[in-house]
Records
---
Amino acid sequence: MPPLALIDNLEHLPNPFTQFEAIAASLTPNAPQLAKAEYHRDLQLALCFIYSYNGSQATFNSYRREVERLLLWSWNIAKTPTSELRREQIEDFIHFCIEPPESWIGTKNVARFKLHMGQRTPNKSWRPFVAHVSKLAFKNGDTPKTKTHALSQAAIRATFSILSSYFGFLMQEDAVQQNPVALIRQKSKFVKKEVTRKQVRRISNLQWDYVIETAEQLADEDPITHERTLFIMNALLGMYLRISELVADERSAPVMGDFTKDSDGHWWFKVLSKGNKERLVAVSDEMLNALMRYRQFRDLPSLPTVAEATPLIPKNRGQGAMTSTRQVRNIVQSCFDQAYLRMCEDGMRTDAEDLRVATVHWLRHTGISEDVKIRPKEHVREDAGHASMATTDKYIDTEYRERHASGRKKSLRPH
């Protein structure tokens, strides 16, 4: 039988440091192990560890996913609390995650808990793993199947990283004597070593020309709906923004006052990025013109004032800031789709293919890739919010261009 969810969404999860007994009491009917003290303590430690990442919804969700899978496997398969797991069992768990039983795999994302008679109860349709298909395959009519579920290398690396942090926390709480994840010496059994640099996923300059022209045409034809679309597209590429940095969440709500002018008359955009770190992004002249056009449409003064609280991206209906990243994805995807059709109509189907699989994040990659060709990479790193220069270096293609140029004319019949 598939297991039931243990940990609710952040907005419905009481503080486990102060309200754990109420949480455990509500879960015990569906998790009888909690009647035993060792499992009771196991859940409490796991919840406290996960709840400590409540400053970021995305981080909380990632840590919850990995730790909850471990709890469910440990309790239901290994028949032991996680605090008693050894290195060999952690390896068994990783193998299990790579090839989980079909009963543990879903084919769509569903709510973990439902509201029933005023109480949050586990949703029986939820599964710890979810099978996916690529965007292109989905467009071609394919649907996810449990038999095709596969964890990516990035997902396996995330499992190792998060579980290592979890057992490090357990050590600090004197719940375990050593970190069994850190004792796994041959992680290469599960994670391939990358010997070549991954290609940065981006759209071409020609594709971007069509995308932004599409957004401009939409804005001219229907400004009420699409002036916002045009600004979003410009902001994602022109300031390398992540989608989470455009919408309001529990950490921050981007406002017009985040555009600020320094004493030299230069404009900057203040962003709260990953890790709750603030960064300033240099605003180009063209980006400033795009902002002025957008503000003119919204009947605002041409440039923001100090501490202006006007939401940067407003909701479609009602007051306040947009809070849905899905809505931004839909806006960008619509632009990609219409730009693809325009390119096909102009006889450039082959050149347009990347737009069928591109995602919002490709715009950030595209902006960084272009800027690093003409700006000092230290400046690009600061604007992008990269933790290290190594991340920025991934966008520099000079060595690869030279290497390919030297190899293009190799003969298959050497003289």
---
Amino acid sequence: MAGLFITFEGPDGAGKTTVLSAISEQFKQAHRNDIVVTREPGGNQISEAIRDIILNPKNTQMDVRTEALLYAAARRQHIQETIQPALDAGKVVLCDRFVDSSVAYQGAGREIGENAVYEMNQFATNGLTPDLTIYVDVPSEVGLARIKAHRDVVDRLDAETLSFHKRVRAAYLRLAADHPDRIVTVDATQPVATVIDTATTLIINAIKKHQRIGQE
């Protein structure tokens, strides 16, 4: 049976990575050989090298389309080297960000067009779509306040204006409204333990559903 592809999305400061880290530890302890946890941009040597270029705060002259293309390039390598082999092996892939991030951050945040970025990534992904996307949502003001209070290192995207982050969140909310069969929104203003429990339940239910379909 083919694997299960689950992505985590959210605006900066939502706590998405914290939630995914906690969940991945739980699942790895019980299903170490059946779970692959990865991230974007990144997930392998080439994609991580591209990540360093994209997020380096010194790269202030980077063109917005160059940025979008670099994300797509990193994603392509990530799929070929990491994601698709794991899915072909029947594993559950938990991925920190995927195409929705590019649509929200580059398409809306950078204002180069959500549809244009989506179409560009269809070439990069060859149509690969997550089975489930857990969108961890938080108001932009709250997310930026969390970043300021808790992060020692701020990357190029973290340092963007409030209006940029509001455009990103608005795009995420549109995506969630347009794809209710795939994207489930979790309120990240709740205690982090509640967010973790909610996301864990969503993943368990998705795995059970996937197993039932495979047995039919």
---
Amino acid sequence: MKKQLITLVALVAIPALSFAQTADEIIDKNIAALGGTDKIASVKTLQYNQSMSIMGMEMTGKTTTVVGQSSRTDISAMGQQITQVVDGEKGWMINPMTGGSGAQPIPEDQIKMQKGNTFLIGADLSTARTQKYPVELVGKEKMNDKDVFNLKVTRPEGVANYYVDANTYQLLAMKATVSVQGQSGEVKQQYGNYKTIEGLTLPSTMELNSPAMPGSVTLTLSNVVFNPKIDPTIFAMPK
């Protein structure tokens, strides 16, 4: 009887153990949900339009990216044109709202954060794998009534926690503690409205909360184009 009981307990335990997932397995499924490793790797350049809403103010913009290397965003706000560029380890911006019309270098700590934007939006865990960032499975928890996996990723600019839907394996949210100009704060980002474009399923809306902003920012992406031809001179800082 005792031997039969031990066998029964073992049989019950095996399925439970088989459902336990590792960080690598979760990332595998997240990449599959996006469209697969080959599809992600095939995107070398990227362009998209964006509309932004912050504290009742509406803005529009266009972003041009060389994946993993350079990114330029041009934003129209209140009749002014704002430009922000990251190119390798350098960066610059033009922001008339700060009182200047010329290009100014971006501080090094901001370049580190902005460099993360040179990768495919919503493919952060794929990027973590290709860039060999350390990843740890924190556990499974609830977020907005959904079961999610919490993955801790150690990135060059700091540690970020990514929350993956346990059913769809799509990325739902991210939070990270960052330091900008000597001040530390928590950045939060939520991803939604996933759309499939040329075999890649990526988020088209994001809500961002950052200590560097006066309120939450809602971004909506449109007119996404993969692998457009890009003139590299657009990333050069004007003299």
